[in-house]
Amino acid sequence: MSQINGVSSSLNDKKYADLQVISFDGLFHGEAGTLNRLKSACTEDGFFYFDLSTPNRQWLHDLVAQLIDASGRFFSSLPPAEKMLYDTDILGSLKNYG
């Protein structure tokens, strides 16, 4: 077992890029070091590993549930014509392929 930027990995099984690890918990709590690593990762590499582990995961699960609920309420409240304004086929350049 080896460490790549603090992330345990078995290099025999998988290949990993040498990227910075950004802690969601650190970002959520506004830690300056984490914010600086995020800026560095975005400007230097354009990619990073996003660490979602946290000592107390319940708040993260609650946050995700709230986001899903809010998006559901937002889109269910719109009339069909307005929903079509957000259609990814119409937005074109904003469409994600994967």
Automatic annotation (TrEMBL):
Domain Non-haem dioxygenase N-terminal: 21-89
Pfam families: DIOX_N (PF14226)
InterPro entries reported in the protein's UniProt record: DIOX_N (IPR026992), IPNS-like_sf (IPR027443)
Transmembrane segments: none
Coiled coil feature spans: none
Protein name: Non-haem dioxygenase N-terminal domain-containing protein
Organism of derivation: Ramalina farinacea
Highest classification ranks of the organism: Eukaryota, Fungi, Dikarya, Ascomycota, Pezizomycotina
